[in-house]
Amino acid sequence: MSELNRHEIISGKRRAGVCLPLWSLLSEDSFESGDIHTLQKMIPWMQETGLTILQILPLNDCGMGSSPYSSISSFAIDPFYISLKLAGIELNSRKKVISTNKINKQRITDWKLEFLGSHFDSDYTQNKIHASEFIRKNDWLTPYLIFKYNYNKNKGEHWSKWENHKVYDPKYLDECITENERDVFFYAWLQMIAYEQLKETKRLFSDNNLFLKGDMPILTSGNSADVWENPHYFRLDLHAGAPPDAFSDIGQNWGFPVLNWEELEKDKYEVWKRRLQYQENFFHLYRIDHVIGMFRLWSIPLDAKNAKYGFFFPQRGVLVEDFQDESLDPEEIRKLGFIGLIDDGRYYFYWDFHHEPGFQELDEETKDKLFRLSFQNLQTDEENWKLKGNLVFDYFDSFTSMMPCAEDLGSVPGFVRDCLNERKMFGIDVIRWTRSFEDGSYIPAKGYRKNAISTLSTHDTSLVMEWWTKELKDGEKAYAHNFFLDSERKPGLHHEKDYLEDPSFILERLVDFAFSTNSQFSIQMMQDLLVCGDKMIFEDFFLHKINTPGTAEHKNWNYRFNFFVEDLISDDALTKKIRHLVEKNNRL
């Protein structure tokens, strides 16, 4: 299948797909958690169901953490995902029955590294030669190997606290090899094995007219090879996050350093080019996490009280001269607690500055001046943000033939929507949130935008049946019942009460609605696709969530299904039900 027309092949027809974290679904050849072989094992099931897109969460090396969105490298694959089976190691899970729906990532990783290490050592000389060649062909490996070696040596401590190698220099690789040759080449060999397994997986998908969709976070942990190697590409004095919204009065501070777009543009986004082209070895499509960040990022100074006191970066800012034109002294206004400093001579207004203590005591003329100043650059900033976003996407399109899909959830400014629409870039429409701006009513299936992916849930939300049974209240629930269910009755259920309370019918109807939308793609979380039989999730929905934003990392990112891929393949009733829904909605 030609890479040159990949975009047209993928987006030329209506498609259905499934999304899951790779670790969550085992094959009978897996060791304790899902791995790259799981992807290959899913091909027959996808062919039978008619699903043609398999979306997975990021696979990047998370080091000693567990969130796939907080990696120590934007290139390296986490060895956790390597298939022992495909690596030639005949060892699988100790138990043939999956007894718990949680995994211990670190423990599984340690076990797998022990087995992989023994395999590597069994033919050390030859494996070292192969690893050396892989290093030579992949320039990102040199900084990663130095970082990985020192990261492990310092037990995950931030690189700024290391005794040695605090500043990147490629010559450090020789020093690390001299100190511990075996471990350095082992890390490189692991990346080679992961590369080979994933590249072969993409080939198998392509040969079967199926597509793999990866996930590309735009932010990287501050304790990563990326930041350590190229600190000038980041604003280390700022943390990325989100402004106050319906979910948080004070906003969110994610702790990631902010991208320095000016420095990235100077180098024509070369680091992104290398990253995208490496990812293209593995995926046909890629999800751009937090696409709004390509235009602007909510940025929080390190000394800010909380995320509410951040600002959108980049921005023109209000200059000293602007304040002086209004006969105001910016430093005096800053001391009053209404504005912050971007850099010398440039200021920003705090979110809801007019609610800060002391504002109402100001005279009306001063209040009016501050309001005018706070809005004076909005149009200019939005024009510049749109230009910047378009420029970044122009570069991305020139770097790769993978099809981009934007994660455009939340409060998305009009200029971002306009840009995505003009570029015909696919966004995401979550059914429960896709409503009229005018009256809050649900959007009919035919009213969905074509260039989008419709979905019932995401890895950050509750399952759709938890939303249905627990989160919808009173009149809202009655309205949802009327909108999603009353247009169809399930044969054999003669009583309204039975019809409304049958979970299998409700879930099937919701999936049917998602597949019926005008969206070119409709990709559902695996949990939401289990529409019948013993795999369907009837209760304790919260136990089956992937992530609850704002909660501790160790409480998330550890979900595991209690069945194997092979069980999906042998479940004729579920397979036929999904295929019927796919076919009915013209997504084959």
What would you note in describing this structure?
By secondary structure, the chain is of the alpha/beta class. It has a domain of 60 residues. An eight-stranded parallel β-sheet has the order 12-6-3-2-1-15-14-13. It starts with 5 loop residues before the first helix and ends with a helix.
User: Can you give the helix content as a percent range?
Assistant: 40-55%
Q: How many DSSP-defined strands? A: 15
Strand arrangement, largest sheet?
12-6-3-2-1-15-14-13
- Oligomerization state of this entry? single chain
Parts with pLDDT < 50 across at least 5 consecutive residues: none
By secondary-structure content and strand pairing, the structural class works out as: alpha/beta
Write a brief structural summary.
This protein is an alpha/beta fold and 588 residues long. The protein has helices spanning 6-11, 36-41, 43-49, 105-122, 124-137, 141-153, 172-207, 225-229, 261-266, 270-279, 320-325, 330-335, 364-375, 378-399, 414-423, 464-471, 474-484, 496-501, 503-516, 526-529, 565-570, 572-584, and strands at residues 15-20, 53-56, 211-216, 234-242, 252-259, 285-288, 297-301, 311-313, 318-319, 339-343, 346-349, 403-406, 427-430, 452-455, 521-525.
How is the secondary structure organized here?
Layout: H1 6-11, E1 15-20, H2 36-41, H3 43-49, E2 53-56, H4 105-122, H5 124-137, H6 141-153, H7 172-207, E3 211-216, H8 225-229, E4 234-242, E5 252-259, H9 261-266, H10 270-279, E6 285-288, E7 297-301, E8 311-313, E9 318-319, H11 320-325, H12 330-335, E10 339-343, E11 346-349, H13 364-375, H14 378-399, E12 403-406, H15 414-423, E13 427-430, E14 452-455, H16 464-471, H17 474-484, H18 496-501, H19 503-516, E15 521-525, H20 526-529, H21 565-570, H22 572-584
Parallel strand pairs: 1-2, 1-15, 2-3, 3-6, 6-12, 13-14, 14-15
Antiparallel strand pairs: 4-5, 4-7, 7-8, 9-11, 10-11
Helix pairs in contact: 5-7, 6-7
